[in-house]
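User: Please fill in residues for this 916-position structure.
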């Protein structure tokens, strides 16, 4: 947070504190030491104090200019009402509460220009007659959250909150034994001060209640004595305290909770007499006037001013600079009239740019400098056509916004979210569709670099959701995090950046919020409030704020992980049912992504083609067939970003791409097709979290990467495999402890892990699924043996060693063949490729491992083609690829399969590796 200028100090002569204390009998510092305060206070100046007189029921507004230093400096007072001879007290946002003789609680609201609603009160509750009595008069208070705290005659302290939408109170008793306190007053967010008149000539105690956790963060703690000299004690917030004695003298003090001491003013006094209010009955300072400074906004850095712009009903366009956007402090510089005719959709971007969308479909750009409009106020047309039409329609008016990159995010009638980027040099636009299903939102506004908030007015009286799109890596860093309900209260919402939100009420009031995306909650400012009333902007029809005024000092960023050069990478092989042939994809050591295919169904050889346009791939390749028969190849570059190629026609050799899928992932991506016929890419990031990118439709582009939601914590290694399982996918992976675990992925969410414990594994575990939805896993142990187990309805029961006398290297490949037998291909420790399988379906016994003694440099890929045709693909170090033909095992092949390594029916097809 930037440093703020301090107000000038008025040097005035005052009586020594000791003499004053002796005269009044107030021994304020009886229990604490006095020192120069490190913690500071900021106040709205002047502080409004509502004063009721004893001689008549009139209400006077007095304004204290120096609450922090405690000087006797006041603005002219004014009479603001009549008939205020009952108990009254203040809340935040200008609220003033009055308890009528019938016990009803009535609320008024004071604005900078007078009483709202023409002074007519709103009844907020009944049953408050007790707090008009002399015994309980000062045992009810309201904090900066507009929460009530009141002590009943039986000593119960009740917390109460009034719901503006439902008109219903939520109440709970939060303490007992409080009838010993004769004064209770709020001074911040749940900060409650009390006076016990029975000890130490009036002991003063401070406590704090956290309504969010329903716990006391500070129990009543004594901080002073001698306070019985005051008739009434109250606070304008920020632990500033006013005490009024029976003669009408008003004294000011300031407590610093972080230092556990009283603050000293410039005269080294802890308290000063600030006025003499002879004839005053009681007083009520606006409780949200002051707040303590602290590190609550250390993670936000703002320009000296956040310009807020407004279009008004008289066609005027006005500018009002907010000088405290990071804290929500209501401080503004002079409101200026700087133009007319902005009565259409307008937005404020970066670098002073202001955008105006004309109804005929033109996008004009203006630029504001620190002194006025650039280019004499003449606009530049940067866009036209259908993309810029319709935004004057009320249904879409607030569904277009600009972020801190000057990138537009728009939700047109299609309901898709579009990102529109303008190239200032080429004078062209590039549009990217990011997501679907945004038609449910009636407002979308930017709050940072790719940070978007969207309101669904049909849920929870207006539910707000947060999104954060990282365009550099095509990641959703946040996706649909709920950010509160009840936002239909606002006509419009905008932001100056850093997740700060300004809400324009239908009644022209403007409120402040700041959301913490890490904690997923709103931040309380130094006053302890999460919603702060900023100003009343009479007749404002639409507003915006400079989106680059505030930035997070430590924003969420993605650091692309380091990669290694390609070396003997594992291939992907699939059966292309549309072309009735096997297809292969792999990354060569030269960094090129290759596609190989059988010349025809059952062909004994593979033809290869290099996919051009990018030559820095590494890791496992991914390959999948779309519903229309077109293949999609996917690879990860040495820059950690993924790229896709798509066949121009099914079965053809012409490809489009590479197209950026990006991601900056730590693992190679895996591409699979689900039961919905959509392709989904999966990858793991540097933190061991699973991400996915799904197609818009069966023949469309991929959406940006999203992190799979998960309950609890987990760490997934980069070594994982994905197995379709009905409408879900099973993710088989190594955990942080190198155990095999399985998580079911359904509609973007991960189920709890099913852990196959008892074995430390290496490489990529393989898995197959059965009709009952259960999974069988195969993995290489730390002893280089292969182990397997099938889960039961109650979990994984234990591992079976299926290695026989053989040991293995790398990662196995497994499939469930047409006869229901699990088969495995694996690279042996001796360098040869092996194939094995169950003796019969569901057996725990395993066949002898068979080989053709072909050496392998890469891990194998075992895939099934049509009928009983199966193939194993791998490559060696001598420039050869191999395509073993291994017919599916069945129970009738068991006798020969048990004979010897050479007796296995393996047909070897060998050819030239195109990458060598």
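Assistant: Residues filled in for all 916 positions:
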């Amino acid at each position: 947070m930037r440093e703020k200028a301090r107000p000038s100090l008025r040097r005035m002569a005052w009586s020594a504190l000791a003499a004053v204390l002796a005269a009044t009998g107030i021994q304020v510092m009886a229990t604490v030491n006095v020192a120069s305060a490190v913690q500071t206070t900021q106040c709205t100046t002047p502080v409004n104090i509502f004063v009721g007189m004893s001689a008549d029921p009139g209400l006077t507004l007095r304004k204290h200019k120096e609450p922090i230093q405690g000087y006797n400096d006041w603005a002219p007072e004014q009479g603001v009402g009549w008939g205020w001879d009952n108990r009254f007290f203040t809340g935040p946002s200008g609220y003033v509460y009055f308890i009528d003789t019938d016990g009803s609680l009535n609320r008024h609201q004071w604005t900078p220009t007078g009483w709202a609603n023409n002074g007519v009160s709103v009844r907020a509750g009944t049953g408050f007659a007790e707090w008009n009595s002399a015994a309980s008069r000062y045992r009810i208070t309201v904090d900066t959250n507009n929460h009530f705290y009141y002590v009943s005659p039986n000593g119960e302290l009740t917390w109460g909150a009034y719901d503006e939408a439902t008109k219903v109170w939520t109440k709970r008793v939060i303490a007992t034994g409080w009838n010993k306190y004769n004064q209770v007053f709020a001074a911040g967010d749940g900060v409650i001060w009390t006076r016990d008149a029975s000890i130490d000539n009036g002991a003063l105690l401070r406590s704090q209640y956290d309504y969010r956790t329903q716990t006391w963060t500070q129990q009543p703690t004594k901080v002073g004595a001698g306070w019985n000299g005051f008739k009434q004690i109250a606070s304008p917030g920020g632990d500033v305290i006013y005490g009024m004695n029976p003669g009408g003298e008003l004294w000011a003090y300031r407590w610093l909770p972080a230092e556990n001491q009283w603050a000293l003013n410039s005269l080294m006094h802890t308290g000063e007499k600030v006025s003499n209010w002879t004839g005053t009955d009681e007083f009520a300072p606006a409780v949200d006037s002051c707040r303590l400074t602290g590190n609550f906004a250390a993670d936000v850095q703002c320009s000296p001013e956040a310009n807020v712009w407004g279009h008004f009903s008289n066609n005027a366009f006005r500018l009002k600079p907010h000088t405290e956007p990071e804290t929500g402090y209501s401080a503004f510089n002079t409101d200026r009239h700087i133009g007319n005719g902005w009565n259409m959709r307008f937005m404020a971007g970066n670098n002073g740019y202001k955008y105006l969308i004309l109804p005929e479909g033109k996008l004009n750009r203006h630029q504001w400098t620190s002194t006025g409009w650039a280019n004499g106020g003449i606009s530049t047309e940067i866009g036209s056509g259908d993309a810029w039409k319709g935004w004057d329609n009320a249904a879409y008016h607030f569904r277009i916004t600009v972020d801190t990159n000057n990138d537009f995010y728009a939700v047109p009638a299609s309901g898709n979210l579009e990102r529109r980027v303008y190239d200032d040099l080429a004078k062209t636009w590039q549009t990217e569709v990011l997501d679907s299903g945004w038609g449910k939102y009636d407002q979308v506004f930017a709050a940072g670099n790719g940070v978007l908030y969207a309101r669904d007015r049909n849920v929870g009286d207006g539910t707000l959701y947060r999104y954060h799109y990282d365009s550099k890596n095509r990641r959703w860093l946040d996706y649909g995090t709920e950010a509160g309900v009840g936002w239909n209260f606002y006509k419009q919402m905008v932001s100056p950046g850093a997740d700060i939100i300004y809400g324009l009420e239908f009644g022209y009031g403007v409120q402040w919020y700041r959301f913490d995306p890490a904690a997923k909650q709103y931040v309380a400012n130094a006053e302890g409030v999460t919603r702060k009333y900023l100003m009343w902007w009479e007749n404002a029809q639409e507003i915006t704020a400079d989106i680059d005024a505030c930035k997070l000092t430590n924003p969420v960023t993605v650091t692309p992980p380091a990669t290694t050069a390609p070396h003997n990478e594992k291939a992907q092989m699939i059966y292309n049912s549309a072309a009735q042939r096997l297809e292969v994809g792999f990354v060569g050591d030269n960094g090129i992504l290759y596609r190989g295919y059988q010349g025809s169904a059952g062909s004994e050889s593979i033809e290869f083609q290099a996919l051009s346009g990018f030559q820095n791939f590494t890791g496992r390749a991914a390959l999948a067939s779309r519903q229309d028969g077109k293949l999609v190849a996917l690879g990860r570059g040495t820059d950690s970003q993924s790229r896709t190629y798509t066949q121009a026609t099914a079965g053809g050799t012409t490809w489009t791409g590479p197209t950026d899928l990006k991601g900056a992932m730590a693992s190679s991506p895996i591409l699979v097709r689900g039961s919905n016929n959509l392709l989904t890419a999966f990858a793991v990031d540097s933190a061991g979290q699973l991400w996915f990118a799904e197609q818009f439709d069966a023949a469309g582009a991929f959406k940006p990467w999203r992190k799979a939601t998960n309950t609890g914590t987990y760490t997934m290694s980069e070594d994982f495999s994905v197995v379709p399982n009905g409408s879900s996918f099973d993710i088989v992976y190594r955990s942080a402890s190198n155990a095999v675990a399985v998580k079911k992925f359904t509609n973007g969410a991960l189920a709890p892990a099913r852990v196959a414990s008892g074995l430390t594994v290496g490489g990529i575990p393989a898995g197959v699924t059965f009709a009952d939805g259960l999974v069988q896993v195969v993995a290489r142990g730390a002893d280089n043996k292969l182990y397997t187990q099938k889960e039961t309805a109650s979990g994984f029961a234990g591992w079976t060693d299926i290695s026989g006398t053989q040991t293995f290297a790398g990662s196995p490949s497994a499939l469930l063949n047409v006869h229901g037998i699990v088969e495995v291909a694996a690279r042996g420790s001796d360098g040869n490729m092996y194939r094995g399988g169950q003796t019969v379906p569901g057996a725990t016994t395993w066949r002898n491992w068979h080989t053709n003694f072909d050496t392998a440099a890469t891990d194998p890929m075992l895939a099934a083609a049509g009928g009983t045709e199966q193939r194993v693909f791998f490559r060696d170090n001598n420039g050869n690829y191999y395509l073993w033909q291994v017919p599916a095992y069945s129970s009738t092949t068991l006798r020969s399969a048990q004979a010897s390594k050479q007796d296995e029916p393996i047909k070897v097809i060998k050819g030239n590796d195109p990458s060598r």
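For context: The domain at 29-293 is CATH 2.120.10 (Neuraminidase).
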